[in-house]
Amino acid sequence: MGMSQTKEEFLYIGIDGGGSKCRATIYTHDYCILGTGVAGRANPLHGLAQTFQSIEDSTQLALSDAGLKPDDSKRLIAGLGLAGVNVPRLYQDIAKWQHPFSSMYLTTDLHTACIGAHQGQEGAVIITGTGSCGYARVGDKELLLGGHGFALGDKGSGAWLGLKASEAALLDLDGFGEKTILTERLMQHFEVNNALGIVENLAGQSSSTYAKLARIVFECAQIKDGVALDIVREGATYISELARKLFEIDPPRFSMIGGLAEPLAPWLAEDVLAKLAPSLQPPEWGAAFFAQQQYAKATV
C-alpha cells in the first residue's frame, strides 16, 4: 500500500467477535460508517478456523455493503475485539494469522466494548446478556471480573436466570419447592405439561437456550411472584457488587451493555444506578478506534 497515502485515505474496520455472531463495520478516519456485515460466531475459545472464517465473511459483507471490491480488504486497518485473547496462546495463534488486511491490531472483546461505550475515554462496563462479566480500564490499571462462562459463573446473566427458574420449577413440580408461576410459564414455553417435558427440552442444552427464559423470569418478578423476585434480586445484587468492585479503580464513566442491561437496571442498588451512564458507541466502533490508535503509534 506504501506510506504515501494520506491519513484521509485510510479506512478502518472494527470487528466484534462474539459467541453468537461476528459484526464488522468499516469506518473512514473520522468515523463515518461506510458498511457493515454480520456473520457467524467468532470466539477463538471455540475454534480458530471458525473464527477466521467468520471474520473473513463479515469483512466481505461489510465491503460489499460499502460498495467496495473484495480485495479492498488490503486497504483496511483492522481492529479486532475477540473473546479469550487474554490467554497468551490464543493471542499468538491469532497474531500469526495470514489476515486479509493492511494491518491488524488485536485486543479483547471487553476492551473494545469498553472503548466504544465511552467513545474512546476510559471507564468501566458490565456486560449482561447470555453471560455476564465486568471490565474496567483506567490508566495502566485493568480489571476483569466474572465472565467464567456457563454454568460455572455468569451469575446475573440471562443463562443464569433461566437455569435458576428451571431449577425452581422442577422443585415445585416434585413437591419440594415453593409454588411459583414460573412452573406454568416454563411449561407453556416448552409446550409440555410435566417435569420430564422441561428436562427433555433443557438437558445438554447450551447457555443460549437457558437465556431465552430470562424474559419469563422478569415478567414473573414484575407480577410479584416470590420465587422469581428472589432470583432477580439475587442476580441484581451480584451485578451491583460487581459494579462496586469496578468502581474501586475510579473509572470516570460506567455503562452496562448487552440484552439484559435494560431489564436489570431497575433492580440494581441505588448507588450503582446513580453512576450508570448510557453506552455511546458499539464495540465495533471501539475496535476501529483501538486500531486507529495502535496504527498511529506504530507509524510514528
From TrEMBL:
Domain ATPase BadF/BadG/BcrA/BcrD type: 13-273
Pfam families on file: BcrAD_BadFG
Recorded superkingdom: Bacteria
InterPro entries noted in UniProt: ATPase_BadF, ATPase_NBD, Euk-type_GlcNAc_Kinase
Protein name in the entry: ATPase
Species in which this protein is naturally found: Shewanella schlegeliana
